[in-house]
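Budget justification aside, the reviewers requested a transparent look at the raw inputs and outputs of the sequence design task funded under Objective 1. We therefore reproduce one unedited record. The lines immediately below are the C-alpha cells for a 268-residue chain.
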C-alpha cells in the first residue's frame, strides 16, 4: 500500500474517487487510463489500482489502455434508456421516417431509438424490413402491409435482440435501400462505438449491404466511447440527431460526405 492510500481520510477519498469513476464508466461505457489520470489528477499507477479495485468487485473489466463495464448492458440501464431522451428520440424517429419512401427495403437496428423509429414507420406503406430486434419486429408486425424478416437464434431478454452464429450470414442475403442504425457512442475521433461485439458484426454486415446508411442518435451519444468500434462517420451517409453535434464534428461532416438532418423547431 502506498503512503497516499494510508489513513481513514485517504481511504474515504479513494472510495469517493472510485465511486465517481464507476459512475463515469456507466455513463460513457469506456474510459481510458489517460482520461482517468487527467480527470482525477492521479498517477497512472493509482488509476490502475482504482480499476483493479472496481474489477475485483465485479463492476468493470480492464481493457488495453482503459476500462469498461463488466456487463455492457443490464435491465435497469435499458429501462432507463427507454425514458432518457424519450422526446428527442421521438423527434429523431419522425425525421428518419420522412427520409424513407414507401416501398423501400431497409435494415433496422435494435435499441430504444430504433424502437421509436419503428413506431414512426408504421405510417408508411409496403416497406420491406429486416431486423434482429423482437421489440422492433413486434411493432412492425402489426402493419399487415409490410414484409418483415428476422433471423433465428437466441433472444437476449434485456432488449429482445436475436442473435446466433449465422445471424450475420442471414443479413448478407439481403440488399437494402437503407440501413438504419444507432450506436452507444460517437467518440471525439468520429468513431462509431457500441457495447456488444455480436451486434457490431450484425450491423457491419447490414451496412455493407445497404445503398445508404442512416445513423440515428440523440445528442447524449456525442463524445462517448464504448467497448467495440463499429466504424467511422465516413461509413455514414445521413446523420439524424435532435440538435447539432459538437462543432469539431459538425465542421467535418461535409468533407466526410455526411448529410445532417435535424428536427424542425416547433413554431411559436
Amino acid at each position: 500500500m502506498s503512503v497516499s492510500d494510508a489513513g481513514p481520510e485517504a481511504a474515504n477519498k479513494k472510495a469517493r474517487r472510485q465511486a465517481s469513476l464507476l459512475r463515469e464508466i456507466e455513463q460513457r461505457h469506456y474510459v481510458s487510463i489517460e482520461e482517468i489520470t487527467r480527470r482525477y489528477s492521479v498517477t497512472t499507477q493509482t488509476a490502475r489500482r482504482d480499476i483493479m479495485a472496481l474489477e475485483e468487485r465485479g463492476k468493470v473489466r480492464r481493457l488495453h489502455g482503459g476500462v469498461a463495464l463488466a456487463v455492457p448492458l443490464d435491465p435497469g440501464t435499458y429501462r432507463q434508456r427507454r425514458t432518457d431522451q424519450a422526446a428527442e428520440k421521438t423527434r429523431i424517429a419522425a425525421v428518419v421516417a420522412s427520409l424513407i419512401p414507401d416501398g423501400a427495403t431497409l435494415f433496422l437496428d435494435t435499441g430504444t431509438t430504433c424502437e421509436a423509429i419503428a413506431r414512426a414507420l408504421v405510417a408508411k406503406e409496403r416497406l420491406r424490413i429486416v431486423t434482429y430486434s423482437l421489440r422492433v419486429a413486434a411493432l412492425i408486425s402489426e402493419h399487415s402491409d409490410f414484409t418483415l424478416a428476422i433471423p433465428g437464434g437466441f433472444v437476449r431478454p434485456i432488449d429482445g435482440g436475436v442473435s446466433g452464429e449465422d445471424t450475420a450470414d442471414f443479413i448478407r442475403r439481403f440488399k437494402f435501400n437503407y440501413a438504419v442504425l444507432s450506436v452507444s457512442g460517437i467518440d471525439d475521433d468520429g468513431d462509431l462505438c457500441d457495447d456488444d461485439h455480436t451486434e457490431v458484426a450484425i450491423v457491419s454486415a447490414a451496412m455493407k449491404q445497404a445503398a445508404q446508411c442512416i445513423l440515428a442518435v440523440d445528442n447524449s451519444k456525442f463524445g462517448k466511447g464504448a467497448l467495440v468500434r463499429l466504424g467511422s462517420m465516413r461509413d455514414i451517409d445521413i446523420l439524424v440527431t435532435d440538435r447539432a453535434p459538437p462543432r469539431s464534428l459538425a465542421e467535418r461532416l461535409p468533407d466526410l460526405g455526411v448529410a445532417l438532418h435535424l428536427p424542425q423547431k416547433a413554431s411559436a
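Residues 29 and 226 are 5 Å apart (CA to CA). The mean pLDDT is 86. Computational costs for records of this kind are itemized in the attached budget.
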